[in-house]
Amino acid sequence: MDFCRDLLPYYLMKTDLRNPIRNAPTRDRSVLAELLANLVTTEGFGATALSDVRLMHSTASYPSAPVSYDPSIVIIAQGHKHGRLGGRQFVYDAHNYLVLSVPLPFECETIGSPEEPMLGMAVRVNPATIAELLLELDEPLPPGGSPTAIDATPLTPELSDAAIRLARCLQSPTEARILGPQIIREITFRALCGERGAGLRALATPQSNFNQIARALKRIHSDFAQTLEVSALAREAGMSVSTFHANFKAITANPPLRYLQTIRLHKAQVLMVSGTPVAEAARQVGYESASQFSREFKRLFGGTPKEVTGRSRVALTMF
């Protein structure tokens, strides 16, 4: 039996004219915003009772700036964000959620205000969970186009409902511990079956180019402070250097060495926000020259380490 057809009765139930929940999408969004507002305690990203869920909160607007997210599904209840990667732009807001399949630095603008703060949640993507879900399906999902590393797609009633239930259970540590993991699994499932699920599905296809590049990205994120040769990364991915370079840039919009440099600078930013001196942060992320580090940092972030770190104590958006 076709999997998507199986969901049709449930979808029709949710869209029935007699169903007040489906007929009040604005109310759904306000419910999620109210639940998240009860949980937030700080600007930027904040922890919850579940390690795989972080909250997003901003009472101000921040201009476009480099950010770095781990693989995640980002659902916004109020306010919005503008993302840019290469020549592509995407908006994630109360109508559209973000699917990020691989760890990726990109440009992001945040829109929020004291009267209407930006509120959202980021659910970490677990490749093992994706593999388990795909194995449990009776039939494979349709291809759904070429996998992309990052994109926004319309929020469905089912995913909105799951987000509300997750936010509700986060109000109680006990409910979060008992109910939360299954709701996270459901959210992952909904995104996996969604219009931008191809990138998530590719993570569970070991021999796909997307999966091989994802593994290389994981290696870069774990060993960023070490000397990494493109030829070695290509060899581990089972590709020639030219093929690896082309696939890497197609997915991340950056060549491998530029990506490595960007990740090092983002890691250093986090260290400096936590109080690590500039020279020590540069050393910890693999720079031998503090002056070279400062030049490259200013080129990426548009200011000196001291200037950017001061701004980032509030606005840092690293998950």
Quick summary:
The chain has 319 residues and is of the alpha+beta class.
Itemize the secondary structure elements and their pairings:
Blueprint: H1 3-6, H2 8-15, H3 25-37, E1 44-47, E2 53-58, E3 62-69, E4 72-78, E5 80-85, E6 88-93, E7 96-100, E8 104-111, E9 118-124, H4 127-136, E10 150-154, H5 157-169, H6 173-192, H7 198-202, H8 209-222, H9 230-237, H10 241-252, H11 256-273, H12 278-284, H13 290-301, H14 305-315
Give the key terms.
four-stranded antiparallel sheet, 49% helix, Jelly Rolls, six-stranded antiparallel sheet, Arc Repressor Mutant, subunit A, 14 helices, alpha+beta, 319 residues, disordered N terminus, 19% strand
Description:
49% of the residues lie in helices and 19% in strands. With 319 residues, the protein is of the alpha+beta class. The chain has two domains: 200 residues, Jelly Rolls (Sandwich), CATH 2.60.120; 107 residues, Orthogonal Bundle (Arc Repressor Mutant, subunit A). A six-stranded antiparallel β-sheet has the order 1-2-9-4-7-10. A four-stranded antiparallel β-sheet has the order 3-8-5-6. Strand 5 and strand 6 form a beta hairpin. Helix 3 runs parallel beside helix 5, helix 9 crosses helix 10 and helix 11 crosses helix 12. The chain is globular and about 50 Å long. The protein starts with a helix and ends with a helix. The N terminus is likely disordered.
